[in-house]
UniProtKB/TrEMBL annotation:
Residues 20-46 are annotated as: Disordered. Coiled coil: none annotated. Residues 29-46 have a biased composition (Basic and acidic residues). SUPFAM superfamilies: Ribonuclease H-like. This is Gfd2/YDR514C-like C-terminal domain-containing protein. It comes from Neonectria punicea. It comes from the Eukaryota. Residues 292-473 form the Gfd2/YDR514C-like C-terminal domain. Gene3D superfamilies: Ribonuclease H-like superfamily/Ribonuclease H.
Length: 487
């Protein structure tokens, strides 16, 4: 199995967002002496050849697949020996049991990004294969941690920091190099402790001894006591816990420039959410916005040359909902959404099945139309023109909207040049703003989180309708939570 195939298997096991991230070499933070990590030679290599007599045995030793074992000699090596003894003391834990507050953990996503960020150019190609097979023939005690703000999400994974240090010791013994947890500002990223003031602590998941150990369904549910205690602690302790959790989620160790960029993106997403609430009339505005939301979703055939096969539109006119109470999660406003589903005649017989399961025949909110490819632009403009001619303020809506806008531009429709366009709403972005999350979520995941019934996704017309439902749900739920906190 190639390195890339092993990495893909690891991504499947550890979840979306786990990857070896490529960065320009000048941006890689090196530990002290990283560029001088060269192979040992001479007397030291001779000592390694005879180190079996000095090996401290452990019934769950990670090193049985290596051709060499760790040598413990001198103060530093005695420290490593103690670490080996203490690294595997979790075998008696039950699922869901937390460790003591003094325990320190390394997030799995931080661990996986180690080669790209903390190994020099000479040794990176040698060390990468160990990280790409990090589950194979090795023992880890995995812990999980839920975010109380996202109680329905799968938990995030961590391992005891001592076990990651043992893993580095074994790589060092095999390659004759000196990998270690970096010192300085990055050291704390690999050794995080939780539980201050009663905030949630990682809970024991299971002992992993092979690549299938994390194929777990269902995952443990969030502990109700963790949620209750988190909600009762001070704002200062919540902020401290969230800053640690952000690292657990992303695995990113950002430099100042990346931090500024992330802050700017977060600020833009927050503004978009506030604007959405103004457009809906949920927040006061100095002018009558009189908005029409036009949501677009495009489906393309997954095989090259990836022609567009479906275009869906969902339109919500705020004039139709002004005197209607939104209801829970906006359910009373959903009946005012008007939908259109265009299927390009030339590709109507094709279905996606490899990456998504397309269902172009299952449009649930009206009748599909079948324009020929040469007439698709005219059909799209016939949907938009009444609102343009009526001088209405148009707000474009989509889930990862720029991708759909790019697709439509290939058909000769540039939505960003409409004179009546006053704003855009990306439901992926406003959901991130609501949840204060750096990772975007798929439409299906957000619908489940909002408990909005849905079916036959990956039909462009259905997806456009549900995207508008998500926009309403996020805007209303964020305000409901905000008001509840104020009270």
């Amino acid at each position: 199995m190639s390195l890339e195939e092993r990495l893909e298997k690891l991504r499947e096991l550890l979840g979306q967002g786990v990857s070896l991230i490529d960065h320009p070499e000048e941006d890689v933070e090196q530990p002290k002496g990283a560029d001088q990590m060269e192979s040992k030679s001479g007397t030291e290599s001779d000592a390694l050849a005879h180190q079996d007599d000095l090996l401290i045995q452990h019934p769950f030793d990670l090193g049985h697949q290596f051709s060499r074992s760790s040598q413990f000699d001198g103060a530093q090596d005695r420290e490593r020996a103690v670490r080996h003894e203490k690294a595997f003391d979790c075998s008696g834990f039950r699922v869901g049991e937390p460790l003591d507050r003094s325990a320190v953990f390394c997030p799995v996503k931080v661990m996986i990004t180690y080669p790209e960020r903390f190994i020099g150019k000479a040794n990176k190609p040698l060390a990468k294969p160990f990280f790409s097979q990090i589950l194979k023939d090795r023992v880890w005690d995995f812990f999980y941690l839920h975010d109380p703000k996202e109680p329905t999400r799968d938990p995030y994974l961590l391992v005891p920091t001592a076990q990651f240090e043992v893993f580095l010791d074994k790589v060092n013994a095999e390659l004759g190099i000196s990998l270690s947890i970096p010192k300085g500002v990055n050291e704390d990223k690999f050794a995080i402790n939780f539980g201050e003031g009663g905030t949630p602590r990682p809970r024991y998941l299971r002992r992993s001894e092979d690549e299938t150990a994390l194929e777990i369904r269902p995952w443990p549910k969030i502990d109700a006591g963790d949620v209750s205690r988190f909600n009762s602690v001070t704002a200062e302790k919540k902020d401290s816990w969230r800053s640690k959790m952000k690292l657990v989620k992303t695995g990113l160790i950002a430099n100042k420039g990346n931090n500024e960029k992330a802050t700017r993106k977060q600020r833009d997403r927050q503004k978009m959410l506030l604007d959405t609430q103004e457009y809906l009339g949920l927040r006061s505005s100095s002018v009558d916005l009189d908005v029409v939301f036009i949501c677009v979703d495009v489906e393309a055939i997954e095989r090259s040359p990836n022609p567009i096969s479906e275009i869906g539109f969902a339109i919500l006119d705020t004039r139709d909902i002004r005197r209607v109470a939104p209801g829970p999660c906006g359910e009373n406003w959903r009946t005012s959404i008007n939908c259109h589903h265009l299927r390009v005649w030339e590709y109507a017989g094709l279905r996606n099945f490899q990456f998504v399961h397309g269902c172009p025949d299952l449009f649930d909110f009206g009748k599909s139309t079948f324009p020929r490819k040469a007439h698709v632009r005219r059909e799209i403009m016939s949907i938009l023109t009444p609102y343009i001619n009526d001088s209405r303020n148009i707000v474009m809506v989509g889930h990862d909207i720029y991708q759909d806008i790019r697709y439509l531009s290939t058909l000769g429709v540039n939505l960003l040049t409409l004179n009546s366009l006053v704003g855009q709403v990306d439901t992926k972005d406003i959901h991130q703003a609501w949840r204060d999350d750096t990772n975007g979520r798929g439409l299906s995941r957000i619908l489940s989180e909002l408990e909005i019934p849905n079916k036959n996704l990956h039909n462009a017309g259905n997806d456009a309708y549900y995207t508008v439902c998500v926009m309403l749900g996020v805007a209303l739920e964020q305000m409901r939570e905000q008001q509840a906190k104020a009270q």
